Records
---
Amino acid sequence: MKKKSQNRYRTEKGGGFIAALAIVAVVLLAIGAYYLFGVSDRQPEKQQVESARTSPGAASGSPQVTPPLPHKAPSSARKKPEYPAVESDLSSVLPEQTAKTEGKGRLAVIIDDMGTSLAEARSLAEIKVPLTFAIIPGLRNDRAVAAYAASKGIETMIHMPMQSKEWPKRRLESNGLLVSMSEEELRGQLNSYFNAVPKAVGANNHMGSEFTEHEGKMRSVLSVLKGRGMFFVDSVTSPRSVGSRIASEMGVKNGRRHVFLDNEQNSTYITSQINQAVKYAKRHGEAIAICHPHPVTIKTLAAVLPGLSSQGITLVTASKLVR
C-alpha cells in the first residue's frame, strides 16, 4: 500500500508540472501575439503624434501637410527652369519685353576720314541704310566723294583737321587748324573747307585732342559754323573737350560721339562696339557712333546695320540727333 501511494504522488506531481508548462506556453503565446499585432497596429499612430509635435503648424492648430517621402524630391524641385540660367540673347527668351523697346532707339553712324577713295563711298552706299559721310577737305578725292554722296542723297559733314596733343610728331593735314593760329587765320582755313564740300550740313573734329580744349579757339570755329547754319558734332577725342558746351552756349546745334566702332580692325570687336551703341541708344533714346572706311569696317557694317531694325533701332543721319 505504501508503494502504491508513492506512485500516485509521482503521477499527480508530473501532471501538475505539465499543466504549469502549458499555462506558461499560453502566456508566452499571448505576449507574442500582443507585440506582433497590437504594437505594430499602433506604430503609425505614434509616428503621426511625433510628426504633429515637430511640425511648425502644430502649436497653432493649422492643418498639417503630409511631407513627401524621403526618397522623393518635392515636385517643384524636379521641374526644369523655364529659361536657361545664362542667356546672352534675351530677345529669344523674352520677346514680349524686348518688343516694348522697338522703335525707341535711334542711331547715327558717321563715317570719318572720307575723301580718299570713291570706291569706299560706293561700298558704303550699297549698304542702303542712312549714313553720314564726314569728308576731310584736301584729300585727293574730296570733291568727287562729296559729289557722289550728294547724288545718292547721303548726308555730308566737314571733318575738320585739328591739332592733337601729339602734334607735330603726329602728322596733321596741311590745312589743319592750330592753336597758334589767329582768329583770321582760322576763318580763312575754315572757309576753304566749304569749297571742297559745298553740300555739307555740319562739321566734326578730326583729331583735335589739343585744339578742342581751348575755349577761345573753339568759339572762333563755332562762330563760322553758326554763320552758315551748320551743326557741330564733338568727336570727343579729349575728355576735356569744351566743344559741345561752347556750342550750346552760342546757340549752335550740336551732339557728341558716344561710341567709336573701329579702334581695332577686327570684325568681332567692331560688332561688339555696334552692340554697345545699340544698348546706349535703347537706354538713352539715341546714340552717335563714329567709324572709318576701313575694308573690315565696311564689311562689318554691311553685315550688321541692316538687321538693327529688328532690335528696335532706327538708323538716322547725324543731323537728326543734334540739338
---
Amino acid sequence: MSSSWDFDPVDRFTAGALGEPGHRVFYIQAAGRGELVTLLAEKEQISALAQTVARLLALLPEDDEDEIDPSDVDLIEPVLQEWRAGSMALDYDEVADRLVFVIEEALAEDDENDPATLRVAATRAQSRAMSEHAAEVVASGRPQCRICGQPMDPEGHNCPGLNGHKEIH
C-alpha cells in the first residue's frame, strides 16, 4: 500500500518535466515539514491542472500576496516518484484563503486497495506560480502540426490530415 500525505500548509508546490521534448516525463511535487513528495503525472493532467487553477484564480478577488521566486517552481532533484497520479480535485477554502488540491493514486482496475492521496493546501501565490510554470512546461514541448494538431518530432511526421501521404517538417 502506498503512502498518503497532507500538506496543510504546503511549503512548496510545483509541476514540471524532465527529459527532451517527445521523451519528457511529467511530475507533480509538494514539500512541507521536511518531506518531499513527487508523483508521476501525464502531460494532459499537468495541462488541465494549470488551466483549472488559472480559471479559479481569475474568479477570486485580487490578493496582495508576494510573488513566488521562480527558482521555487523548479523540480527538486533527484526526482524519486512515489506513485502515479490518477484523479485530481481542486477546491477553494474561503476561510483559510487556500486552494486545496487532492490527488489520488492511479490504481489498476483489479486493485482492491484504497488509493493513496496527496492533499495540498496552497496559497494563491503558490498556486499561481505552479499554474504558470506548469503551462510553460507543457508549451515548451514539441511543436504542433498546423494541420492535425499532433506533436511533430524534429524529423517531422506523417500527418493523418494528409492521410500520411506527405511528411511535414
